[in-house]
Amino acid sequence: MNFARLATDFAGIKMKTPVMGASGTFGFGIEYKDFLALDRVGAIISKGLTPLPRAGNEGVRIAETPGGMLNCIGLENPGIDSFLAEILPRVREQVGDTAFIANFSAGTVEDYGMMAAKLDVDGVDGVEVNISCPNVREGGIVFGTDPKAAAAVTEAVRKNTGKPVIVKLSPNVTDIAVMAKAVEEAGADAIALINTLTGMVIDTKSWRPLLGNVTGGLSGPAVKPIAVRMVWQAANAVRIPVLGLGGIASGEDAVEFLLAGASAVAVGAENFVHPDAVERVAEDIDAYLEARGLTHVSQLVGKVKIG
Ligand SMILES: Cc1cc2nc3c(=O)[nH]c(=O)nc-3n(C[C@H](O)[C@H](O)[C@H](O)COP(=O)(O)O)c2cc1C
Q1: What atom in ligand 1 is closest to the CA of residue 61?
Q2: I need a surface site. Which of 130, 174, 222, 247 has the fewest CB within 10 A?
Q3: Is the shortest distance between the CB of 24 and ligand 1 below 6 Å?
């Protein structure tokens, strides 16, 4: 892998490659240390943290669907305090200089601000604000579908941290450009999209929903064309950088997001199929660049030819 071709500064976060492990699919990074070289990962984005520990939703939390999966984990996590005391030091010991981005959500604007302040510590290179989790009532999606609420959360986070702030948008909206502009104006340094699309599966034998939470979030290859379209629309609406994700399983998938306007990408559900996917996608992007005589990955960003 030629790091000179791949090195990316994403909203002030220095990464060796433009490929990150997506929140909720990559643990805290260290769980993957036997499957790939963590120092060849662009950035680790943590599982979504919340003010208090959460056990997540009851019942079945994962269902396979054609070309993807539904999940309704419900933000199971150890809580911010235990993360800071016990997990972050271990992460820093084991991942070397790989960038670490803390993903979090909360139930109120004030708690989003409080979380941002607590995460403004050494060892955290940036924060990703989840306003788009479809699987919990309090927090997440309520803020992600209303531009005013999304802006209020972004402002509260911005005021409470000196770290780069990435706001993760929901695809469950009519006009993604409106949401992207709202958080840009409120002080976001970057946006990430897409989170999962709300879906449902029904068992035709029992006539019951397969998932304990009734609905869940769809991810995987099935969502990729929607994600690419939304990244393209959002990138055209704002000046801040875009982190693109949704169904990326190969270097060519990632290249589509870059051409659509993303400056970096993240791999989610594919980590469950191939736990070395984050490293492999970066290698594939590098091979793609080399084959075309391109000297840096930024030469692809937003270069989709339209008209
Ligand atoms: C099991 C699972 C857990 C997830 N947990 C989170 C989370 O805690 N916070 C978050 O912002 N996104 C979470 N996501 C969403 C992913 O980060 C990503 O936005 C989405 O799955 C689309 O990418 P993919 O198709 O590559 O998986 C989760 C996704 C899955 C599949």
Answers
A1: 1
A2: 174
A3: yes
